[in-house]
Amino acid sequence: MLDWKNLPFGYIKTDYNIRYRFRDGKWSKPEVSSSEYIDIHIAATGLHYGQEAFEGLKAYMGKDGKVRLFRWEENAKRMILSAEGVKMAPVPAEMFREALFQAIRLNRKFIPPYGSGAALYIRPLIYGSGAEVGVKPSAEYTFIVFVTPVGPYFKGGIKPCHMMICRDVDRAAPLGTGTFKVGGNYAASLRALIRAKEEGYASTIFLDALEKKYIDECGPANFFGIKENSYITPKSESILNSITNMSLIDIANSIGMKTERRKVPVEELAEFWEVGACGTAAVISPIGKIVDPDKNKIYEYCSDGLPGPSTLKLYNKLVGIQYGDEKDEFGWITIVE
Ligand SMILES: Cc1ncc(COP(=O)(O)O)c(C=O)c1O
Asked: Is the pLDDT of residue 249 over 80?
């Protein structure tokens, strides 16, 4: 039996995963596999040329015993964008849905119970599986969905974490692949992420690659700041369009806050009342301190060690909808029967 309340954000083996192959211009029927391994051609473009993309979403167990999937259509759309961004065969939304549902149903016993604060993380991935030696897109693709139960990404859940501004590594270029969820962006972020972790920070904050003037995002999460009654989040050509962030903008508007998506200069950090990172994995992580070592600057928030009032309000509403405690007024939830 798993220790549901203390799950890491990590991989735990479940019973089944779902696989499809794209060959001769069409996708196969699903195959249910109980293996954690794949056979992969030594010349597959996914291994050599970064033809790979993935998604991440969660299924939540409600108090009523119903399993809720949060905004899967948005993940399906983003995976199509990512696939097209690195010239892969896109996964049709209906096939994406079928794979998610099957993976969740077959691994139902791994969905963390209501009240544990954990959820079933769903990881769809696609890669070029055909052999090529020259740089070109593969003619064959493999799409897999596996699931694993997870706790929160940033330890401490809603406890404020510390972040470090990174000025010597870029995760993505302005006209590059930053808006796609492709493996290469994560590989590019690792040097900065590991350094931040070694120095005791939860993650790194990337700035815009061109001018280093504006905030891009927080490792694997988007950034937001709160000033007076406004929710402010960066507009950038090189960040992943977070579904959590999109949802928080709608929630903020619905509770009477103003919202702005615009460039956020680094100096504005001194003006925010609350700041945080948001994403499927991060949920909402309030940030207690941001250090900019190269500029010798420290920005501090949450002086009492607790999340700010607006952050908390947004968190409670979002998590309430996801677990079914709050009315799904935006139509974001799909019940997995
Ligand atoms: C780079 C990056 N930014 C932001 C996010 C948050 O996006 P979402 O809210 O859709 O999970 C993620 C996680 O998916 C990410 O990897």
From this structure: yes
What is the rounded distance in angstroms from the CA atom of residue 58 to the CA atom of residue 119? Answer: 6
pLDDT of residue 156: 59
- Alpha-carbon distance of 221 to 242, in angstroms, equals 7
Residue 327: partners with Cβ closer than 8 Å, 6 or more residues away: 321
Task: Establish how many alpha carbons lie within 13 A of residue 64's alpha carbon, considering only the half-sphere containing its beta carbon.
Answer: 11
Neighbours of 24 (CB within 10 A): 8
Measure the CA–CA gap between 197 and 192, rounded to whole angstroms.
9
Q: What's the pLDDT at 153?
A: 72
Segment among 14-23, 96-105, 302-311 with least mean pLDDT: 302-311
User: Nearest-CA neighbor of 182 among 36, 318, 53, 293?
Assistant: 53
What is the Cα–Cα distance from 30 to 19, expressed in whole angstroms?
6
Cβ–ligand 1 contact at 322 (below 6 Å):
no
- Are 210 and 174 contacting, i.e. CB atoms less than 8 angstroms apart? yes
Of all atoms in ligand 1, which is nearest to the CA of residue 222? 4
Going by C-alpha positions, the residue among 218, 39, 191, 57 that lies closest to residue 125 is 57
More confident residue, 282 or 46: 46
Q: How far is the CA of 222 from the centre of ligand 1 (A)?
A: 6
Q: What is the token pair recorded at 56?
A: 């991440």
| Residue labelled with tokens 């990174």 | 166
Q: What are phi and psi of 188, to 5 degrees?
A: -65, -25
